[in-house]
Amino acid sequence: DGHSGWIEHLLPIVEREALPVTLYVATGHVQSGRPYWFDALVNALQTGEPLTLDTAAAGLGTITLNRERGAANWLRLSALFEALKALDADARDALVQRLIADTDDAVAGQRRPRFRALQPLTPADVRTLAQSRWVTLGSHSHGHELLDRIALAEAADSITRSIALLRKWSGQEVVHFAYPNGNYNAALAAALPGLGLKSAVTTRHGLWRRDGALFELPRVAVGRYDDLPRLRLSLLG
Predict the structure, then answer these.
(1) Contact at 8 Å (CB) between 198 and 215?
(2) Which of 27, 142, 192, 212 could, after both became Cys, cross-link 165 (CB 3.0–4.6 A)?
(3) Would you say 119 and 4 are in contact if contact means Cβ atoms under 8 Å apart?
């Protein structure tokens, strides 16, 4: 998406290991300096004590987070975010704001845990990344919209806007793309070459073959709780 961790943590690793990477930037939060709704909610939900929320509006009823840490808690968070993504944008944004407010009320007077909040890159950070010989920048749309749920013209405008900003900030040509959340359809994939793009990455699991579609590239995902044996198994395709 384009978080500050790319500069703080990833770039030193890339330089040390001489590791080529393509980084897909959603430009809206870089331009505004404000986190997207999902990052703002993740930041708010980092509490030291268990947190119970009414998420009936997202179809989940009442959920309790942070009772324990690790993979089990992340599964609950993931279920909440998938339910939020399924909502109409206006309803989702209203619910997210209420959940943030409810969280603030629930932890008022508590000592919040110290953690690094998810923050977007700055345009200057994007330029710094582009100066590395190992970094290629790709587009991830402007507003991180689910592009198969909006009009094709609106989706194209979001992508075009992102490409233009990345070119301005980095001085690089931008010819690669990743679908936000992996959402796409045949019409969108067919439109991408006309926007000057040469590839697009989905979230479909698998290894790409030379005869595979360049605008429906699969990937091997690495989750935050995956271990090395799981990664090795994934690489078998």
Answers:
(1) no
(2) 27
(3) yes
